Amino acid sequence: MSKKIITPVASLAHILPEDYRALVEKGPHGKSVGIKDLGSFKEITEEHPHCAGCGVSLGVRLALAALPAPEDTLVVGTPGCSFFALSQTAVNYSNTAFGNQNSVASGLKRMLSIRYPDKDKDVVVMAGDGGIADIGLDMTLHSWFRGEKISTIMLDNEVYGNTGGQESGMSPEGQVLHMAPKGKNFKKIPVFEMARTAGCVYGAKVTIASPKRLGMAVNRAILLARELGPTYVQIYTPCPTNMKFSPADTLRIAKEAGKAHYAFEEFMTEEAALRIAAMEGGLEKEPE
Amino acid sequence: MYLSVRVDTEKCIGCKICITSCPEPNVFIFLPEQKLVEVNESRCKACGLCTTVCAKEALKIG
Fold this sequence. Notes:
The complex is a heterodimer. By secondary structure, chain A is of the alpha/beta class. Helix content of chain A is 38%, strand content 13%.
């Protein structure tokens, strides 16, 4: 959504909600702001409807703050907790049938590259573990096999949060849940490793407890997807409601997971590594 | 009673760690001149995440 489109005509500005006017005046459109600037600009998302202390809403908020160009970004979601926060976000946003998000994103990306050949339009899939790893796994993998230039961000809360706590393919082995009283009896699906094998040029695994790394991973993933190919970021976003811990403990749980099964990991192709070095100004001098 | 987080302006040093820990958008506003954070109390859901990360114990739910 470009700033030109959202700016109201002067005679009608007074009837628009205060939040909308603040977005026009102080929004991140056209500026290079990121996670480090949070608190000094108007965020593009507003009033999430999630539970108090929700990890998913923090993940969505941080990922949206890290978008390199929110005015030229299209976010594709799928039903689940992750999609609630997107419906009141000021980016072009599309919801899909459950699990279809990567197919829809592929089509949108191709259409946008025909319609705007001179402009970078980022298509970002932001969906939960159910949408990406369970119901939409085939569509996700095929979009990676085809080398579609889209970024996939998984908000992994390791449970089907909004339907009452069924076990997900991404739940860790042995995890006891509302609808898995004896504990899950198979391992977490290794989507991160599958992304590497399936042809993603960049992948990262982070938790919401390290916001700077999260921002860096999302930023890199979107910028690399513009030119090179599919990218994948997996964000751990614990769920206090279904995992039964206090809302104030979400970050502690995320930090502990960051030391255990969710340690920060990144993979990238050689080309992607060179591109990152060039983008971030750390290009190493070639030996003479 | 409506619960929200309150900032102790004498203890706050403006490190901004609470801003990146809050799941709710636009609750914390950073005041660069005073090096403090301000809270939009009508948006806060009082989950307490910011209080657990504040090293200076400048945030309290109440």
